[in-house]
Write a structure and sequence with these properties.
With about 270 residues, the protein is α/β, with parallel strands linked by helices. It contains eleven helices and ten strands.
Length: about 270
């Protein structure tokens, strides 16, 4: 379990440019969770995930991974983080070498590295026949999956994804989200940072909403998207299908506003008819 305990963080403290990014943040991520972190630009999302991954030193509060402080090497190795546009960090001449880079730095045997590359490629839905291809010749969606595979080859117990579908075309986005679902079903605990409320609605079992460095909401997506006041304060919009149900409710129809998918909306409207 990841435990975030009363963390606060201020950039450039003691200077005229001092800015508080996070204030008294507390939450847990249990094994098997798919936790979404939502919030407008400047809400503190990026700072939060970097702290959880051990990339920013804390002065106030603590982060523990399975009971160990994030400052320990053992704890940090349990967390993998994929930043926005990770394909820009690809640099090796082949897909195989790029995915193998991390495990090689762990000093693993060639056989273990090869096994990890194969497993990571399968997890993200990459065909084995592109192993010897240049990653720079692949499509945008494939590059993104190669970058994620490079993190998965390190076998993290917890995976942080920062806006993983940003910039992808609709088909590539759909394919990547399907692979992320498979990762979660395979047992990877995921923290998913996104502006796309429809993705959060269909993927996450819990969501945290940040605004101005504070947690405004923690609970299920279904509860969140029925609370327009919270969404307005955070500068967020519910998924389109939920917006439709809210409009119908305002028009006088007795419909549920805790609707996340088109199938649910169809069933709810059929009930009325």
């Amino acid at each position: 379990m990841i435990e975030v305990k009363n963390i606060s963080y201020t950039y450039m403290q003691g200077t005229p440019f001092e800015k508080t990014a996070l204030r008294e943040i507390n939450f847990n991520v249990k094994e098997g969770d798919f936790l979404a972190v939502a919030g407008h630009t400047g809400s503190g999302k990026s700072t939060l995930i970097q702290i959880v991954a051990g990339l920013i030193d804390l002065k106030i509060g603590a982060v523990e991974i399975d009971g160990e402080d994030i400052k320990s090497k053992t704890a940090r190795r349990k967390i993998g983080i994929v930043f926005q546009y990770p394909e820009y960090q690809l640099f090796e001449e082949t897909v195989e070498k790029d995915i193998a880079f991390g495990p090689k730095n762990f000093g693993l045997s060639e056989a273990e590295i090869a096994a990890r590359v194969d497993e990571a490629m399968k997890l993200v839905g990459l065909d084995a026949d592109i192993k010897n291809s240049s990653p720079f010749e692949l499509s945008g969606g494939q590059k993104r999956r190669v970058a994620i595979a490079g993190i998965l080859a390190l076998k993290p117990k917890y995976l942080i994804l920062d806006e993983p579908t940003a910039g992808l075309d609709p088909k590539a986005k759909k394919n990547l989200l399907a692979e992320i679902k498979k990762l979660h079903r395979a047992g990877v605990t995921i923290i998913f940072v996104s502006h796309a409320m429809e993705d959060i609605a269909t993927l996450a079992n819990r969501v945290i909403v940040l605004a101005q460095g504070e947690i405004l909401f923690e609970g299920t997506p279904r509860k969140l998207f029925s609370q327009t006041e919270i969404l307005n304060r955070a500068g967020l919009m519910p998924p389109p299908v939920t917006q439709l149900m809210l409009e119908l409710r305002r028009a006088g129809l007795n419909v549920s506003t805790e609707i996340l998918t088109l199938d649910e909306a169809e069933r709810e409207l059929s009930r009325l008819l």
